[in-house]
Each structure stands twice: as C-alpha cells, then as structure tokens.
Amino acid sequence: PAAARPPVCERTLAACHCDADHFHAVVRAAAPAVVSVLGAPHFIPSGVYAMTDISQFREVAALLGKYDVVLMDPPWENRSVLRRGAYDMLPPEEFARMDVGDLCNPGAVVAVWVTNKPKLISFVKTVMFRRWGITPCTDWYWLKLGPDSKPIFPLDDPHKKPYETLIIGTKGPTQGDIPRDRVVMSIPSRHHSRKPPLHGLLQTLRPGPCIEIFARELVAGWTSWGNEAIKFQHLEYYHKID
Question: What is the pTM of this model?
Fold first, then answer.
C-alpha cells in the first residue's frame, strides 16, 4: 500500500532546515532568500508557498485564509501533453471538487486558464463556477505572437488557435468593474504551458491578498500553491544584474 501523506503543517522559511521541510507545508517567507532545495539553489521572494497536491486541499486551505484574487492554471487533460509526458493531468471533475469558493472573500476575482475546447469552457462556467459560488463575468485572451509580431497561427485556423482563454468570474453577483474581453499579446515561453505573468494586472482589480493555485513559480507578496510551486525559482532561470 502507498505510504500515508504527512499532515500539512505551517512553518517559516527560516525554519526549513532540510528538503522535506519545504513539502507538505505552508511556508511563509518574511524576506527574500536563496535556499537549497533538492540539492539546487532556489530564489525565494517574500510571500507564502505550499508544495502539495490537491488531495490535501482542505488541509492547506484551512491554514491560508481568504483571498481577493484567485488565479488557476489547472493541468487539464490534453492529448499533446499526454504525448510529451510534460506533466500529470487530471479530469475536469477533480478540479470541480476543489472548494475554491471557500478561499474567496466576497467579491473576489477568480481567473481560470482553459484550453480552447468549447465543452471545457462550458464546464468551467456552468459546473465549476456554480459549485464554487462564482458568477462568470468575462473572458480574457492571450494572443501568442511569433518573433515577427504576428500570431503563431491564423486566427481562423480550424485545428490550432493562436490564443488561450482566461475565464474570469467573481464570488457572488457579477461586478461591473471587470474589464471585458481584454487581449494580452506576448511571445510564448520556451517552457511548455507557461502562461504570461498577469499577476500585476489582476492585482489592479482587487487590492487584497492574492493566490495562484497550480503555481510553478513564486511571486512576491502572493501565495503560490502547487506541487511544483518553486519549479521556476531555480537560479538557472535568473540573471545576476550588477
């Protein structure tokens, strides 16, 4: 039988003395630091991170409190990802079972990245959001550009779209202050499925605490939650500026 997961605990970054201390825990960093995790140096900004999977959702949520912005990039089922073996995927119903609404303050903004499958977009709006008490407001779009500043595929391509969708809703009634149908344009990262950094843009919508679920990087002042939350904190992704 599989070994039981250790219970989730809470500690400061200064109290993390071995690799295991960074996992199955809510870690609070009062100041930026470079620490060794799994034998490699990682830059940790001030903020909070939790490296667990969604099987420990309730335990982690009980330690975190409430948020005004919730950003999610779930590992949706995808044939391309399956072929590459890029990361573990889960069926949509697993994400719907997460009680994300319990993490939200009244009026909080919830933003969820989705693939371009109409059935999945409908599932998020009519099943996931409904269970969480979230009212759909609008869709934002990330238009992917090539080095020539043109879309990587034609907009009317029947097979591959040059954009991804961010579905935005609010906890409770629809708020009239969310910009509609916003388009963000950028050249995609060379790292698969890495989204553009919209953290600052989302923070302009609500002034309070912010969390990213299924995070793969840390953002100063945010809570970052996911089993790969410090993936892009390795120093190999940083350049020293004198």
Answer: 0.91
